[in-house]
Design brief:
With 152 residues, this protein is α/β, with parallel strands linked by helices. It contains five helices and four strands; from the N terminus they run βαβαββααα. It starts with a strand and ends in an 18-residue tail after the last helix.
């Protein structure tokens, strides 16, 4: 499968993943040819996009926009650096592991996965954890305090 990946850094932040790392994460979740733009943004842009396209007036961690559902998929994944950093800290995860999870999450959304109902959410979570395991990244839905699976 072919992946055309463009990365845009619209947020000032240190220690963002390198393009090669982002490409590896995106490719791991790839199920068909795709042209994808990953855009790292600040909270203002994330809030503006979330309000305009989802009607929710707050900055969110990841937004996915599908532009073409033909044989070669095209779309954008927008990641809010400040929200990712805050969530990683709150959840006891490294920033890079959390970022990898949300890149994979966005890639799956581009390919039609969703979590609107419990059955679809379980299927998406299973796929995410399998992709992340192949990347040697811990299960993002495991409860790190109990050692048992659970929602993060």
């Amino acid at each position: 499968m072919r992946l055309s990946l463009t990365v845009q850094y619209a947020a000032r932040a240190a220690a963002l993943p390198a393009i090669g790392t982002l490409r590896r994460w995106a490719r791991a979740a790839l199920e068909r040819d795709a042209a994808v733009t990953l855009r790292f943004v600040g909270p203002r842009e994330a809030q503006t996009l979330n309000a305009a396209f989802r009607g929710k007036d707050y900055a969110t961690n990841v937004l996915t926009f599908v532009y073409d559902e033909a044989s070669a998929l095209a779309g954008d994944i927008v990641l809010c650096v400040a929200v990712l950093r805050r969530e990683a800290k709150e959840q006891g995860k490294t920033f890079l592991d959390h970022c990898a999870h949300l890149v994979v999450h966005g890639m799956l959304h581009l390919q039609g996965y969703d979590h609107d109902d419990p059955r679809a959410a379980r299927a998406m979570e299973r796929r995410e954890t399998a992709v992340l395991a192949a990347l040697r990244i811990p299960d993002p839905y495991a409860d790190p305090y109990s050692g048992r699976p659970g929602r993060a």
